[in-house]
Amino acid sequence: MALDSRVPQGPIKDKWTDYKNKINLVNPANKRHIDVIVVGTGLAGGSAAATLAELGYNVKAFAYQDSPRRAHSIAAQGGINAAKNYQGDGDSTYRLFYDTVKGGDYRSREANVYRLAEVSANIIDQCVAQGVPFARDYGGLLDNRSFGGVLVSRTFYAKGQTGQQLLLGAYSAMNRQIARGKIEMFNRHEMLDVVKVDGKARGIIARNLVTGEIERHSAHAVVVASGGYGNVYFLSTNAMGSNATAAWKIHKKGAYFANPCYTQIHPTCIPRSGDYQSKLTLMSESLRNDGRIWVPKNMEDVLAIREGRKKPTDLSEDERDYYLERRYPAFGNLVPRDVASRAAKERCDAGYGVNATGEAVYLDFASAIERYGKEQAKIQNIQNPSKEKITELGEKIVEAKYGNLFQMYEKIVDENPYKMPMMIYPATHYTMGGVWVDYNLMTTIPGCYCIGEANFSDHGANRLGASALMQGLADGYFVLPYTIGDYLANDIRTGKIPTDTPEFDEAEKEVKDRIDFFINNNGTKSVDYFHKRLGKVMWDKVGMARNEKGLKEAMAEIKAIREAFWKEVKVPGSANEMNPELEKAGRVADFLELGELFAKDALMREESCGGHFREESVELEGEQKGEAKRNDKDFAFVAAWEYKGEPADAVLHKEALEFKDIELKQRSYK
Amino acid sequence: MNLTLKIWRQKDSQSKGQMVDYKVTDISEHMSFLEMMDVLNEQLVNAGEEPVAFDHDCREGICGMCSMYINGEAHGPDRGVTTCQLHMRMFKDGDTITIEPFRAAAFPVIKDLVVDRSSFERIQQAGGYISVNTSGNTQDANAIPISKHAADEAMDAATCIGCGACVATCKNSSAMLFVGAKVSQYALLPQGQVEAVDRVKNMVAQMDLEGFGNCTNTGACEVECPKGISLDNIARMNRELMKASLK
Ligand SMILES: Cc1cc2nc3c(=O)[nH]c(=O)nc-3n(C[C@H](O)[C@H](O)[C@H](O)COP(=O)(O)OP(=O)(O)OC[C@H]3O[C@@H](n4cnc5c(N)ncnc54)[C@H](O)[C@@H]3O)c2cc1C
């Protein structure tokens, strides 16, 4: 099948408006006869479910947690972008569009990104109308902060809990529709397959996670909003339950999977402390506004620190290597995430890591505390302030800005980050790759849509901070509810989709067989045992830096782990009860396939772009020596993979990327 | 460190439960409480036994899934944290730790440490929203200025993660802190005014219907709340209810 992105004709700034004017609509009376399934109730799924129900469709929404409000979007800290230009600093739709395409290293679809920037302002209006308590200034107007990789202040926030507040907004909109009976909510339910009838997505098979019952649900369209697949690495900043199952199941039934190798490794996370570790915790990017990143210059100091003979605060300025400021004088500590992560890895690989595992660098607030302290002393008219006074005043300011993050750090690490620099290390955070969708957000299965982090979306090879929340809500509130009508307009006479058909029988049987296999398999090893092994291969060979040899090994090793998994996995308990081990088994089985496709995609892409760094593709000379080298001539395309059984046999389809409104340039942060 | 765990095991909502003793060894003080539970579960799986079911997801204190009653306290002995943020350094080698589910008539046990909090869902469906459709034509976000003070207070109320620690802690199993926080968020914002009367009446009516107890002002809920939701929210809800009953 040829890939058709269905991008409308015309100038980029008119595309979306013109398209909406011409699209097929479903009249309100007919919407009552149309059912839509939404899998996932994070920002993307929650906003879509609420909006579709407001429009009059009958919505069935699914989530594996016990409430829609607990979706992983709840954990987002920093903020959400929108081109409001409230600060009058020259922001505009075009600038947000430009920053996002450039930040994504020119690997996203221009028309989608422009639309995203266009609807971004509506998101903020909508959320405020719902009662989302964004931060405000003393005049009562909305406040903004800045994020990495841009030159304007366009990020809206609610303390360090922006995702929580936005999700509660979408959740409240859902609650209104649940109360009206327009959304039927299935909490503690997991989608285990999609059902196709005559080639179209017409329903799902889901497991009730409380009773273990396998259920059939039909609809005229299926929307997958199940989040990202970062947990393929075992350790990530994602929630423990975040998984790829829904996305992977539709892939296996015909939806192409795009750019799986584009993953964001976030530079500032709390380092691993031991083998028992279950997840990694993000320290928001906003900290890099005031924190300076360094490691010791001399190896003796590194060893002394590791052995506890010295503290970082014992080292003088010239014994420290502020390596980001050294390598990137123009952007310093505020280079984009991919660049900052690789630089930390480079230092740690060279042996300069400052903790026992050798995988940590310092994020130091001492300079900021001193700077703010002096400023405050001036403001408060304190003559000749003592060093202690300056520190005290400075710490107050830092606390006001980042208090909740400092508290989180202290709880986990048991060290006071006001007095000792934080230790941080990169961790898997976000997946830019995902299910391929066209301009309508429809996958290659007719009637099956994919939104939010689960699709391959608008972020190219690297996502900028505060853009995921924007994309999830844009998809769910403002894009999908229009584009889905174009498809459903053909279904007004279809009538209810029956579930007592051979297609549902077959899909249900497949699901049940797999569950029975797990329960009856006489293995000896836990699901986590295999998940951790997969994670280690992914991190070591498909992590921050990749090369041909490592990727080939990774493919073979993942295959071997997968084979061992199917022989040796042990799942206790039964199928007809709440069984968290059984849930995990199904998810890890899918990660074990996705991981191999991920490595295959990384192997195919013989260029470095965004979060995908191929060691063979670096600048060899000049000012950019050693930096990532993109290859637009051969790789300016979306890699969309078609499932053919074994992941290694997946077939590549290319969607060429055309840049008509932006000139392709090398990203430079020097 | 080595620990003895006394854990509530219950097969399903119909079965009777009981406390069962387990031993875990070599627990690092740097582990989170749930990582200690992971170690126990791995041990159980390897021994061919059923692991302990417990709710958890984000493991950074924001999703509100985790819900253990540890040594007689919701979310355990530390303050201002959820169970997933509790660290083993709060315990000593040789300790015996009692772990139960959140207990309340309105939170029936589903299995082991997992409880059913759907009563919270129904309370919010009864009025925890502002009736505004998604259209793209809502008025500009800055059209109505809101004082920083009101916005910050609304934010403090909205910080509630809906975990249910307040209910589990209260001797009457009252949900007043939770409902108070929800009502307050909207009561403090101009957008919430239009529906204020019906909102508070309907949410409180649903709360009573679900079988939550009365508030007798002991303040225990505020102490155990992982997000520091203040008792002021209960007072504000009572005022809102009073105003509503006069209309
Ligand atoms: C710690 C952290 C901080 C972040 N901070 C920011 C930030 O400041 N700004 C920003 O823009 N982005 C941020 N991000 C990224 C952003 O939060 C996510 O990309 C975004 O919230 C994803 O939303 P979503 O709706 O696509 O998916 P999710 O919120 O992950 O929701 C997935 C939903 O799918 C359901 N689900 C999954 N599988 C199944 C299944 N098989 N059956 C049924 N249901 C299923 C889940 O129950 C859930 O409801 C952050 C991410 C993390 C991890």
From TrEMBL, chain A:
Keywords linked to the UniProt accession: Cell membrane, Electron transport, FAD, Flavoprotein, Membrane, Oxidoreductase, Transport
Gene Ontology CC terms, in alphabetical order: plasma membrane
Pfam family, one: FAD_binding_2
GO molecular function, one term: succinate dehydrogenase (quinone) activity
Lineage, opening ranks: Bacteria, Pseudomonadati, Bacteroidota, Flavobacteriia, Flavobacteriales
InterPro entries (UniProt xref): FAD-dep_OxRdtase_2_FAD-bd (IPR003953), FAD/NAD-bd_sf (IPR036188), Fum_R/Succ_DH_flav-like_C_sf (IPR037099), Fum_Rdtase/Succ_DH_flav-like_C (IPR015939), SdhA/FrdA/AprA (IPR030664), Succ_DH/Fum_Rdt_flav_su (IPR011280), Succ_DH/fumarate_Rdtase_cat_sf (IPR027477)
Enzyme kind, highest EC tier: oxidoreductase
EC number: 1.3.5.1
Subcellular location(s) per record: Cell membrane
Species per Swiss-Prot/TrEMBL record: Snuella sedimenti
UniProt similarity note: Belongs to the FAD-dependent oxidoreductase 2 family. FRD/SDH subfamily.
Catalytic residues as annotated in Swiss-Prot or TrEMBL: 337
Protein name in UniProt: succinate dehydrogenase
Domain FAD-dependent oxidoreductase 2 FAD-binding: 35-469
Keyword Transport assigned: yes
Predominant localisation class: membrane
From TrEMBL, chain B:
Keyword 4Fe-4S: yes
InterPro entries from the UniProt entry: 2Fe-2S_ferredoxin-like_sf, 2Fe2S_fd_BS, 4Fe4S_Fe-S-bd, Beta-grasp_dom_sf, Helical_ferredxn, SDH/FRD_Iron-Sulfur, Succ_DH/fum_Rdtase_Fe-S, Succ_DH/fum_Rdtase_N
Transmembrane in keyword set: no
GO biological process entries: respiratory electron transport chain; tricarboxylic acid cycle
Single GO term (MF): electron transfer activity
A matching Pfam family: Fer2_3
Origin superkingdom: Bacteria
Record domain 4Fe-4S ferredoxin-type: where: 151-181
Keywords: 2Fe-2S, 4Fe-4S, Iron, Iron-sulfur, Metal-binding, Oxidoreductase
Reported cofactor(s): [2Fe-2S] cluster; [3Fe-4S] cluster; [4Fe-4S] cluster
Membership in a protein family: Belongs to the succinate dehydrogenase/fumarate reductase iron-sulfur protein family.
Database matches in NCBIfam families: dhsB, PRK07570.1
Protein name, entry field: Succinate dehydrogenase/fumarate reductase iron-sulfur subunit
